[in-house]
Amino acid sequence: MSRNWPESVGIRAIEVLFPSQYVDQTELEQFDGASAGKYTIGLGQSKMGFCSDREDVNSLCLTVVARLLERHHIKHTEIGRLEVGTETIVDKSKSVKSVLMQLFAASGNTDIEGIDTTNACYGGTAALFNAINWIESSSWDGRYALAVCADIAVYAKGAARPTGGAGAIAMLVGPHAPLQLERGLRATHMEHAYDFYKPDLSSEYPTVDGKLSIQCYLSALDTCYRLYRQKFEKQQPQQSQLGLQNFDAIIFHTPFCKLVQKSVGRLSFNDFLLCSEQERAEKFAGLERFNAATLEGSYFDRDVEKAFLTQSAELFANKTKKSLLLANQVGNMYTPSVYSGLVSLLISEPASQLVGKRIGVFSYGSGLAASMYSIKVTQDASVFEKFVSKLDYVLPLLNAREKVAPEQFSELMEVREKNNHAAPYTPTGSISALFPGTYYLKDVDALHRRSYERTPSNISNGVH
Ligand code: HMG
């Protein structure tokens, strides 16, 4: 039987979750003895969300999936595929996906394909691509897919600790979506690197070479952007050469906000190197001294960085800054990070301004795996406005979080560290500090079996 591809496959609904508690980065600078401004200005971070021992990757995924299905009135039987992307591994065999099947038990729907995918922060994008691919394949049975990503990003005491965070995203994937992934416009770069990895299976903390990780991130960005440009130009030869002007917004995986600002400068530097002499004179006047600069030689070249940061400042302000809201307020969520950027953009821009627009997406996971692709926003303004209005809860919830002193944050990190993989174990973290409708770890029995409960719902605040 031949069947046409379903039209406009993409994201039909999106749900975000972040921790109910945070530590202030200015206070953390003082507590850590870092120079004033290092975390807030140097890294561009204001607050860092964190989870006590009451939450783990399973509970984050249970909460975000339950919320998405409830708030969007999706029946459990309407889901035919569920993919999870995470790097927060609590079991080397049993998947998070299998834990999520508890939510579907009452409906009797066990016919749900998909399983977990892991590669650092890239797993969420792999989950999304798998979900899209299924719907565009001969295996599709007409139901929706769910792409879920969640992580708890924690670092040992030291330079990397302020770049932690936590969160989860669930995306309902199907045809006729308000956010459509553009076909044929995916550019991927994968390579073997030891920039950030988790070889100690008994610890939540990664082994990280900070400087190398930044170089890997920027070089993967260069490669993906150049490949995306080639694919775009091949697919749309009638358009003028692709450059940053072809994106109405660009979102990035965000380990810390300052790196994203530098990344916009980096893309501008790529445009500079690739454009014609005439364009160079028009668009990049005054930057002729960099005509002989190279990508490889410039990862830590302060002159190149500064010049293109300045040159791209307006682009950054217009196309990317708004997408950094959650990253600035919560920190690095790992796999959900780039999708929290999407949510931030959607809630910060009047919906009418994004109708019919193209959003560039750069996803990066250490180790390394990276992709650049683009999302086209539907032309149907009323469909899009309805889609965005479902995110009305995000700002009030962000403002309802509880600030915790760095001393207490540090103690809670020690509790996580000491009891990682302990069994039997009963968590001690506060349940009343959690948002309504949050799944939490009740206990771990002597056989390492985890059980969860949920805080009461509160429909009035839109999150239940
Ligand atoms: P560090 O080496 O201690 O920091 O750690 P630094 O000394 O480089 O300072 C950071 C910035 O603050 C610098 O800015 C300083 O100048 C500035 P830059 O010069 O680079 O523009 N600074 C100040 N600014 C204002 N006032 C002050 C001040 N003091 C200094 N008083 C590092 C930084 C990011 C390396 C560390 O936090 C780390 O290792 N983090 C984890 C790794 C990471 O986030 N890497 C990013 C790319 S890899 C990635 O994205 C993947 C990842 O998400 C994992 C995954 O895929 O799963 C991490």
TrEMBL record:
Domain Hydroxymethylglutaryl-coenzyme A synthase C-terminal: 180-454
Highest rank taxon of the organism: Eukaryota
CDD domains associated with the record: init_cond_enzymes
Gene Ontology molecular function: hydroxymethylglutaryl-CoA synthase activity
Gene3D superfamilies: 3.40.47.10
InterPro entries: HMG_CoA_synt_AS, HMG_CoA_synt_C_dom, HMG_CoA_synth_N, HMG_CoA_synthase_euk, Thiolase-like
Entries under SUPFAM superfamilies matching the protein: Thiolase-like
Family: Belongs to the thiolase-like superfamily. HMG-CoA synthase family.
Name listed for the protein in its UniProt record: Hydroxymethylglutaryl-CoA synthase
